[in-house]
């Protein structure tokens, strides 16, 4: 076949054919990808790689058979990476691995299953892994439970339901031996005791965890040493039940707004939110957003930190003030959150200054240690000399003295002048160097002025001496002006004439 015609036209036609062919091939590839069955189990040797800087915030690798949930790489915040089980209709993570060190979304990461699950970062370091469990297959159940199983066993070797993050879902038991439910910002935790459930603030990495809300099972008998502890579970009928371990006897119910409304088809979750409140939500068919169904703490000012550290919350008003002045302020904080106790601060020489304020109270004073029959002065003195005490709040009507042995968070305004507070506020660290007392500093300044004056006088005298020396050298040079050799002879003859 001979090629005739304009070469440019021939080249353009060839390029067009290539473009059409490429489009057809791409269409076939996309169609094959869309037609593939979603992965519903992982076998030993499975590896999935995170695409560094992927534009989508979630990269699924494993699906539940119903298609409502998926396990995959989740972008957390602006650029961190975690492993999560996500409720796909709402994009809400119902479980997260929450490693101590999150991965970097902008860099590669790897998820593997080889007997156990493991998430590694770009540098090969292990971010998270399942410990003490060896399985053959991984599946994600329709309940959102991520399970590692052995073929010959019915019970799972490992399951995410036994390792909650910040959320409980239907069918998941929460026991006293379970890890605490921890908010996504890691500032609050839900724990179960033998006969109660309680919300805690987390300070110093969980080393100090004061409670700010507590609910005791109504029909439990904590004084009975033989009675088993309670566990909690969400019920599709719209409540959170507390039961005795072993027999399953229900001893209390936290009813939701939709209790007894026959919303059994809805998917329910209970989450410890970042403001420290424990809330329940449900997602019904056709929903576009989660519907709130329950909250443990009803009033905003009863939360632990609605106005941040050293804030003052005014009830029934959307208003925050600062303890050290009366100006309104917006959350998050009047002062920076503390990361170390005052005892450590004293060793570093940081110290603190004191703020006193009337008309203050604590929303969760029932959870605080207290002393009775104290005056306001005695209450303050009990805290002032104790480096582990951050504040003391005194109620003049009852004589109760509440001691706060953790960093000060939000207080509550009460229109009663007999309710007074004493608060320690850490001073900012001093600049490196030796500080001098006012007297020593003044003496040092005076001595410096004297030395400067002496130095100036010495410089002046030295200058005058140098000038005089210069003038002396100039006179000598004028007296020793050289003369011609013949003049020396005449001078010699004249000298001889004197001898004559």
UniProtKB/TrEMBL annotation:
It is found in: Membrane. It catalyses: L-seryl-[protein] + ATP = O-phospho-L-seryl-[protein] + ADP + H(+); L-threonyl-[protein] + ATP = O-phospho-L-threonyl-[protein] + ADP + H(+). InterPro entries: Bulb-type_lectin_dom_sf, G-type_lectin_kinases/EP1-like, Pan_app, S_locus_glycoprot_dom. Its EC number is 2.7.11.1. Keywords: Disulfide bond, Membrane, Receptor, Signal, Transmembrane, Transmembrane helix. GO terms for molecular function: protein serine/threonine kinase activity. It is a single-pass type I membrane protein. GO terms for biological process: recognition of pollen. SUPFAM superfamilies: alpha-D-mannose-specific plant lectins (SSF51110). GO terms for cellular component: membrane. The chain crosses the membrane at residues 440-463. Residues 343-427 form the Apple domain. This is non-specific serine/threonine protein kinase. It comes from Zea mays (Maize).
């Amino acid at each position: 076949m001979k090629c005739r015609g304009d070469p440019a036209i021939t080249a353009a036609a060839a390029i067009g054919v290539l473009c059409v062919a490429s489009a057809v091939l791409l269409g076939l590839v996309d169609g094959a990808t869309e037609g593939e069955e979603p992965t519903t189990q992982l076998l030993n040797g499975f590896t999935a790689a995170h695409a560094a800087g992927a534009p989508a915030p979630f990269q699924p690798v494993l699906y539940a058979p119903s298609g409502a949930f998926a396990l995959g790489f989740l972008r957390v915040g602006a650029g961190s990476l975690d492993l999560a089980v996500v409720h796909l209709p709402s994009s809400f993570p119902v479980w997260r691995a929450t490693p101590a060190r999150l991965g970097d979304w902008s860099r590669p990461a790897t998820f593997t299953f080889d007997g156990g699950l493991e998430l590694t970062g770009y540098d090969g370091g292990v971010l998270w892994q399942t410990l003490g469990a060896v399985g053959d297959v991984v599946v994600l159940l329709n309940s959102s439970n991520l399970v590692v199983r052995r073929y010959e066993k019915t019970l799972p070797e490992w399951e995410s339901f036994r390792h909650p993050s910040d959320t409980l879902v239907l069918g998941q038991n929460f026991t006293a031996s379970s890890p605490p439910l921890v908010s996504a910002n890691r500032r609050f935790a839900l724990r179960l005791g033998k006969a109660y459930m309680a919300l805690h603030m987390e300070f110093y990495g969980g080393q100090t965890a004061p409670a700010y809300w507590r609910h005791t099972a109504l029909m439990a008998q904590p004084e009975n040493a033989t009675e088993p502890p309670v566990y909690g579970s969400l019920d599709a009928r719209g409540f959170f039940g507390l039961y005795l371990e072993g027999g399953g006897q229900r001893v209390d119910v936290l009813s939701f707004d939709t209790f007894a409304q026959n919303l059994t088809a809805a998917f329910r979750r209970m989450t410890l939110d970042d403001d420290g409140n424990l809330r329940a939500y449900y997602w019904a068919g056709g929903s576009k957003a989660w519907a709130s169904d329950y909250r443990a703490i009803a009033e905003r000012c009863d939360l632990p930190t609605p106005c941040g550290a050293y804030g003052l919350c005014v009830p029934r008003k959307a208003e925050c003030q600062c303890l050290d002045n009366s100006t309104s302020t917006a959350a998050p904080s009047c002062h920076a959150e503390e990361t170390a106790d005052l005892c450590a601060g004293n060793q570093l020489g940081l110290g603190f200054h004191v703020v006193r304020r009337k008309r203050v109270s604590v929303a969760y004073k029932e959870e605080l240690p207290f002393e009775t029959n104290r005056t306001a002065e005695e209450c303050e003195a009990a805290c002032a000399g104790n480096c582990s005490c951050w504040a003391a709040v005194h109620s003049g009507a009852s004589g109760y003295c509440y001691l706060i042995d953790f960093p000060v968070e939000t207080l509550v305004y009460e229109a009663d002048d007999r309710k007074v507070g004493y608060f320690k506020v850490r001073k900012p660290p001093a600049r490196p160097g030796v500080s001098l007392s006012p007297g020593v500093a003044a003496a040092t300044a005076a001595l410096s002025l004297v030395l400067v004056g002496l130095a100036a006088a010495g410089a002046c005298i030295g200058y005058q001496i140098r000038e005089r020396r210069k003038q002396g050298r100039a006179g000598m040079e004028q007296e020793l002006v050289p003369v011609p050799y013949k003049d020396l002879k005449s001078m010699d003859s004249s000298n001889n004439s004197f001898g004559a």
